[in-house]
Structures are given as C-alpha cells and as structure tokens.
Amino acid sequence: MITYYDDRTVKVTSTAVRVDGRTFPLAEISTVWHRRGSRSWRVLAGRGAIGAALAGPLVAAALGITLALWLDRSVTVTIAIVGASVLVGLAVGPIADFLFEHLDRSYARGSRELEMWARWRGRPVRLLHTGDALRFGQIYRAVQRAVEAGQPTPPRPR
Q1: How does residue 155 score in pLDDT terms, banded at 50, 70 and 90?
Q2: Which residues are listed as membrane-spanning (predicted)?
Q3: CB-CB neighbours of 67 under 10 Å
Q4: How confident is the model at residue 60 (pLDDT cuts 50, 70, 90)?
Q5: What is the number of structural domains in the chain?
Q6: Distance of CA 71 to the CA centre of its chain
Q7: Minimal CA–CA distance to 47: which of 95, 97, 106?
Q8: Which residues of 115-142 are buried (b: 16+ CB within 10 A; e: fewer)?
Q9: Is the residue at 19 inside a domain?
Q10: Helix (H) or strand (E) holding 95
C-alpha cells in the first residue's frame, strides 16, 4: 500500500481515501472534482491591515520630513524633526519580516473556501471542506495520483 498524503484528519493511500474517520475505497470512486466558494472578506481585510501596518511608518516619516521642510524653522529644529521622522521610518525594518511572513502565509492559505467532491457508489459526496488552499492542493493532488495509479493501463499497440 502506498501513502500519498497523511495528516491528522486526512489519509490518502493507494486503496482508499480516509477523511474525518470516513473511508472511501478508491475502487468505489469514479470521479473527483472541486468547487471554490466565494472570497472571504475577512482574509482580504487582514491583508489590507498588514499592508497598512507596513506602509504606516514610512508614510509618517515622509510626512515628518515634509513638515520639517515646510515649517522653515532653524537648522537644529529641522534636523531634529527629520531625524525623528527617519527613525520612525526605520522602525518598520524589524517588524517588516514578521509582517511579510504573515502576508505570505495568508496567500498560501488562500481567501476562498474549497471543497473536494467525488462520485462514490454513484452519488456525489463531499470529501473535504477547507479554507487552507495549500493543504487542499496537496490533498487534491494526492487523490488524483491515487486514482490515476489505480486505473488499469491500456494495452500497448504492437
């Protein structure tokens, strides 16, 4: 028996697909397809918030420099305001890596609900429902490989 995918709730082998304790033998599955749900506005708003958190200190620094030049104060005051603005802009550096990592994970997880369906014993059955696009892709490809491996190969022409 070959294992194509295995985690705590899903196991795909060369003989069956097991999801949340339910087992579907590959011999009884005739077709597999997927459906995408609507976009999650919560996920999109989270991405926007991360973008704003990245841009906020840079915008504040640019506004501080502009204000320092516009006020036309003494050189000491102008240098102090520009220096403080540059420090605010540099504050984004240490947190940028952290924020970019969260943004990257957000895109890997996706912004839609995904469903995997199969025709099992002649009727459609939803095998999987998740919002994690990366995990869904791994499971869907594992099921495809298992189904392809289980199909008989046609005889070769001589």
Answers
A1: low
A2: 44-71, 77-100
A3: 13
A4: confident
A5: 2
A6: 46
A7: 106
A8: bbbbebeeeeeebbebeebebbebbbeb
A9: yes
A10: helix 92-109
